[in-house]
Amino acid sequence: MRAWAKFFFCIFSILGALAFTTYQALPGLLEQYYLTKAFNESGIKIKSVNIGRDRVVYGETEKGKPTLLLVHGFQGDKRSWIPYIKKLNKQFHIVALDLPGHGGTDVPRSLKYDLESQAQFLEVFVRKLGLDTFHLMGISMGGGISTLYASKYGYRVNKLVLINPFGADTPYKSGIELEVEKGNNYFFPENIDDLDTFMVYIKGKPLALARMFKQHLLMKLKEKQAFYKKVFYQLISSKKIEAFLPNIHSETLVLVGENDQILHPSSIESYKKYVPNVKTLVFKDGEHVFYGKILENVINILKDFLADPTDK
């Protein structure tokens, strides 16, 4: 091969390698860019504390207002709350943590992941931050954790909000629970088709993303799959929450989606039956994750529910 041909071959090989590397890295770079932008627009500062030898990451907005502590769901992290924080940050000092092994928080060496153990972890985090009393809001797994927390540490919880909470003993199975019984556990997708199916169960529709971005999300989920499976199986072995519900004395609001295919909406009946001071709402056409017009409605309901009575 002539020298000039070798030269151009080397150049094109390098450019090709760079293009391939850039293509692989692009979704992660764009994710980080837009996530940073969203945090900044929401007034969220990313911070961390050490609990023992483990680092716990959390987002926090400006202090000097009533505190609202947010607890995300299974395989989620603090970013799950961005749509809520954008609308509530003027009214509240917001703290949104990454639960153990989720987001930027380390995987503790000895922690168990049933609801009671995670509620105890949450209390350790609360003490570490020096929080006294606050409003508490949790979604899905975070709703179950918040339920247990309010039953054990109710003296801290001014008002409690639970969105499609996990842990109730329901008379019916959700769509994804029926699939798990058939051996199709879409909580742990193996390919993009599985991921799309999982998103349909969560949101009622697949993610509107280009294939390379879905591939990036799938890769991130699979990287933590062994850990998520550990959490999943310990979580579903938790004691049912009905025994704890009568111990919740905080004013409580439970919101569920009528079309929730992750956790059957009949869970709301346990809260109606056992929580002394509870309001419940079922959103027609609501999925496991609220968005669009339903989310706007939820935000307005939250502002009213969490408001200081003297401000009304």
Write up this protein.
It is a single chain. The chain is of the alpha/beta class and 312 residues long. The chain has a single domain (13-307), classed as Rossmann fold (3-Layer(aba) Sandwich), CATH 3.40.50.1820. It is built from ten helices and eight strands. An eight-stranded mixed beta sheet has the order 1-2-4-3-5-6-7-8, with helices on both faces. Helix 4 links the parallel strand 5 (134-139) and strand 6 (157-163). Helix 3 packs across helix 4 (141-152). The termini are far apart.
Q: H/E series, N to C?
A: HEEEHEHEHEHHHHEHEH
Task: Give the tally of structural domains.
Answer: 1
Strand order of the largest sheet: 1-2-4-3-5-6-7-8
Poorly predicted parts: 5-23
- Contiguous helical run count: 10
- Tell me the number of strands: 8
**Strand percentage, roughly?**
15-25%
- The N- and C-terminal alpha carbons lie at a distance of 82 Å
Under the CATH scheme, the architecture is: 3-Layer(aba) Sandwich
Topology-level CATH name: Rossmann fold
Please state the structural category: alpha/beta
The coarse overall form would be: globular
Q: Biggest sheet: strands, sense, closure?
A: 8 strands, mixed
The value of Rg in angstroms is 21 Å
What does the average pLDDT come to? 91
